[in-house]
Amino acid sequence: MKKAEALSSASFLKPLAERAAMGRALRARAPRKGLGDYRVRADRADPIDLLQANSAGRVEALLPIRYGRMVASPFAFYRGAAAIMAHDLHGSADAGIKPVICGDAHLMNFGGFATPERNLVFDINDFDEASIGPFEWDVKRLCASLAIAAADRGFDAVAQAAAAWSAADSYRDHMGRYGAMPILKAFYEWIDLEELIADTSDDDLRRLHQARLRKEAGRDPNLHQFSKLTEVKDGALRIKEAPPLIFHDADFERDADFRAKAEVMLTRYRDNLAPERRLLFDRFRVVDVAMKVVGVGSVGTRCGIVLLTSGNGDPLFLQFKEARASVLEAYQGRGHFRHHGERVVFGQRLMQAASDVFLGITKSEDFHYYVRQLRDSKVSADVNVMKPANLARYGRACGWALARAHKRSADAAVISGYLGKGDGFADAMARFAMGYAEQNARDHEALVDAIREGRVEAETLV
């Protein structure tokens, strides 16, 4: 990813009508209808080879958990297969507009969380693969995820395509709105989660989500995690073991300076915080550190949690996650960041409406990490309770959030000029989503076969 200064475009200084015309001219380079084409490349790599290559350098003992989670369903497979989709999108048609993109914009990487001002917002919440790349790649990954999730729910092909279409249509609508808005007004906009839920047409689902919000608002997330994740052992407060998902790293435990390594890592994290954040961090002391397996695509990477307490006894949980090369790097280049944690943090601060006050970077030996709060009033979507209309509405919310994120580093007027006002872009994205859902199902079956044949080891946890 290039430095932030290099992301500015001279197009912003041109009149609005001229910028929109620049976008329309890009249709000659990449006709919108052609964006919907998905064809298997003649040189397409074996998907299992791609997964195993993406697993290189991860903690070997945890890889069976990764594959066990991915094999559960085509949708679970898709969540862990960002590297495969990046390979498939490479060389596909695009308009040549390259903002900072999420790189893994599937529907479960969107959700609600609390801002430092304690507002509940809806936004993208995962930036491990953030990079500069074609905006279409994020839209395609989002739309395909909706079609695949709809199929997992047993919805028919019409509902699958409708969910994908709704996300792309929303992206186009909101990009057009941002293109015409004053620059600062567009930059400051955030999506109010409570308003989003209040607008839900399904009464039962609205009441369910509003109850979840009330429950979340009524508890301190750190105190809640404290009751779940800690115990007193041998007279000392410790993070509770729950192997193989939460554990104190055995390799480090055999090393007498385990605690010293953790302290050095956190000292580097502190040194990288802005001065005003250091003042806050210094009110806490480290109590314990443990490894914690998270997600699907992240399984096997070095991730953990740190328990800290203040002089008042207030708990604070920080999560550190290994930052590896983005799956887009092989196709879009690495850019200027030498530290992958810096790349992730830059992407999050740029694309999110508001970011965690504890967001930062650190390093341990040859591994790069970023740090954030373990959980701060996070509200995730429950696809399993959604009807077709609900999923389509959720797709619209995700499309809105994605447009809001992309316009932070790209000219919304140019993108909007390219997308136009008709249904062509949404039609193409829905067609792509349906085609790629079929490819994903075949790749999932390839993983099933690889596990059956002993080529891949998988562990399914109850």
From TrEMBL:
Q: Which InterPro entries match?
A: DUF2252
| Name used for this protein in its record | DUF2252 domain-containing protein
Q: Which organism is it from?
A: Sandaracinobacteroides saxicola
Lineage of the species this protein comes from: Bacteria, Pseudomonadati, Pseudomonadota, Alphaproteobacteria, Sphingomonadales
